UniProtKB/TrEMBL annotation:
PANTHER family: EXPRESSED PROTEIN (PTHR34203:SF13), METHYLTRANSFERASE, FKBM FAMILY PROTEIN (PTHR34203). Residues 57-234 form the Methyltransferase FkbM domain. Pfam families: Methyltransf_21 (PF05050). One of its GO terms (biological process) is methylation. Keywords: Methyltransferase, Transferase. This is FkbM family methyltransferase. GO terms for molecular function: methyltransferase activity. InterPro entries: FkbM_mtfrase, SAM-dependent_MTase, SAM-dependent_MTases_sf.
Length: 260
């Protein structure tokens, strides 16, 4: 069943729709606003992007990074990829709320092959939604060590949802962005990073100038992503997320294509 959307005010008059309930959303939407609008976590480790270029927002969630890009670069084109139907509904509502043009919404997940997959939607914290439930529930155990068990159970309560998954190269081919440079691929896809990168063809790797990827999991996952990016001709580095909740294991990987 589709969650009802709630319209909430975050900061400075910015409002957004979300499928989360009122109390949890103030926490999650505020955190996301803080990391994107105030700390600029996805762009701060990269070179400036072309204001009229193409940006891929993989793991678009309710659309705050897409709104950020369009606020700062109105002429940019965005391919917003989000698999969870509840989040897609909020994403579309937020684009309509601000009359945002130049955004193509792709309601699918990313993988190394086309098909379908089971995802898990977290109603209290939609940004936690993932195809990798076991890893996410490890975070629940961590949260329970410094919050109450009741809060941890509420935050990590989840529902199953089966969604389509596609290769990123196939999405690009079928989108208005089948050719030309891609200024940035931002990924925040809760554990599916390696599979998503495996869904890029060599020709599309060559088109991408920069990546900003939140990598979830142990250090070996981070090293695997760094090795892949460097092997594709990028300089890449990982940074710890200083504002992550205690014990939550994730890194931000920034990658820039080396000059030819």
């Amino acid at each position: 069943m589709m969650s009802e959307l709630n319209l909430v005010e975050i900061e400075g008059g910015l409002k957004c729709y979300t499928p989360a309930g009122h109390n949890p959303v103030l926490t999650e939407a505020g955190l996301i606003y803080e990391e994107i609008f105030r700390r600029n976590v996805y762009l701060r480790g990269l070179n400036p992007i072309d204001p009229g270029g193409v940006v891929v927002d993989a793991g678009a969630n309710i659309g705050l990074f897409t709104l950020f890009v369009k606020r700062h670069f109105p002429s940019a084109s965005v391919l917003a990829v989000e698999p969870i139907p509840h989040n897609v509904a909020a994403l579309r509502a937020n684009l309509d709320l601000y009359s945002v043009a130049g955004v193509t919404v792709c309601p699918v997940g990313l993988s190394d092959q086309d098909g379908s997959a089971r995802f898990y939607f977290f109603p209290s914290m939609p940004g936690n939604s993932t195809a990798h439930l076991a890893n996410k529930l490890k975070d629940r155990e961590t949260v329970a060590t410094y919050a109450t068990t009741e809060i941890a159970e509420q935050v990590y309560r989840h529902e199953e949802v089966d969604v389509a998954v596609r290769r990123l190269s196939d999405l690009l081919r079928d989108s208005p962005h089948a050719s030309g440079d891609i200024e940035l691929v931002k990924m925040d896809i809760e554990g599916s990073e390696q599979a998503a990168l495996a869904g890029l063809d060599d020709g599309d790797w060559a088109r991408i100038k920069q990546f900003a990827i939140e990598v979830h999991g142990a250090q070996d996952a981070v090293e695997a992503v760094l090795e892949l990016l460097r092997g594709k001709g990028f300089t890449a580095q990982a940074q710890a997320e200083s504002h992550s909740p205690r014990g939550i294991d994730s890194r931000l990987v920034y990658a820039r294509r080396q000059p030819a």
